[in-house]
Amino acid sequence: MSADPACGDALPTAARGGPVSHTLSRVARLHRIAAGRLLKAAGFYPGQEFVMMCLWDRGPVRQSELIRTVDLDPSTVTKMLQRLEQAGHVRRSPDPADRRAVLVEATDAGCALLTEVTAAWCDLERLTLAGLDAGERAELARLLGKVEANLCKEAAECAVAQDDRTSSARSTSAAEL
Q1: C-alpha angle 168/95/92, rounded to 5°?
Q2: Which of 12, 42, 84, 137 suits a disulfide with 116, CB 3.0-4.6 Å?
Q3: Pair 70, 54: CB distance under 8 Å
Q4: What distance in Å separates the CA atoms of residue 162 and residue 26, rounded to the nearest whole number?
Q5: Cα of 51 vs its chain's centroid, Å
Q6: What's the average model confidence in pLDDT over 112-138?
Q7: Quick one: which H or E segment has residue 161?
Q8: What is the rounded distance in angstroms from the CA atom of residue 171 to the CA atom of residue 148?
């Protein structure tokens, strides 16, 4: 079996002008793979946990608001919701305040997975930050926050979602990292 090319040290010729961007892309890919493996026990595909996190924290929300919050393409969220609904984790129903809108809420079965997903994210954090001391973890969080802000300026459509994420990220203390 050959090694994963994403784990190699060689920088492709085309990426030589962006070694940090290349590394960040590789890290994001590997992080998503690790998250997927950890979340598989709860029956989630990568990304579905973000939908559930929103529902666990906010309760029933309109599907349009959920799409804005998770900052994904509407068709992607719709497909996620179909899978989550088929698995019995969410329920969609007409909004009584506006029958044209759809409300999405976590079912009791979906709410029962909160502890499992929380544990998976704790394991992912430990795996991701293994070998870094508290100062390095705080510095990494600070630098990644700056990188995220730079990218959000470029992708203006994520400004609202960015505000939500940075305010919660700023409240994370170095001790929690």
Answers
A1: 75
A2: 42
A3: yes
A4: 22
A5: 9
A6: 96
A7: helix 159-170
A8: 16
